[in-house]
Amino acid sequence: MRLDHILIRVDNLEKAMTDFREMGFNIYPGNAGKKCHHAMIYFQDESFIELIDPSKFPASLTFLSKVGVLNLFGPFFRRITHYVTSGEQFLDYSVHTATIEEMYRRTKPNNKKLRMHQLKRVNHSGTKIGWKLVVSENMELPFIMSDYSPAKLPVEEAVIHPNGITGINELTIEVPNQEAYVQEFQHRFGADLRSLENTTLIIEYGDRFRITHVQLQPGEEQSVVDLCNLSGYGIRL
Domain 2-236 carries which CATH code? Predict the structure, then answer.
């Protein structure tokens, strides 16, 4: 498995996109129109950062989240509720597997509440993109992502950034019990969360689950760019 993406909750998507662009990142809206609620920053190591602005979610979805009704529809929708009701912060992360259907069939018998969802969206260029994801009832564990079809990149050069950043070098999380966290992921998904192919996952002790830091990977010919304005998003070199 490899790190697929990290989700950051923002209060103002347009401002966040401007902040990242000013720091030398190419960033792409997730879909077209005024109700676009997310944007992506893609990297050469096949990971990406997704900025989410729940204020752009449909009003009905926001209402059902805030009154708790959406939680009744299972783990996937409990995550949506968390996204809507959280403040600006690292929200979530996911890992990728190229064999998501086989993994789901293999682990489902021991995970009665495990669910696989098939999703799609039309990106800002008008291309329809589809993918699958698997979600467990434990919201502290990452969700599992499939490949995208036909492809997730809006343009081939999306992974080339003026600041030279090539990927996500480290992801740091805090949990009350590091070993139990790793063992539960192993039990549910049959894989070692500490052996992601493209990113080092650092698991530290904390009183609750939270993503604390994302460390980006500079390229060999990185230009001199001040990334201090991203400290509010928890990102560092």
Answer: 3.10.180.10
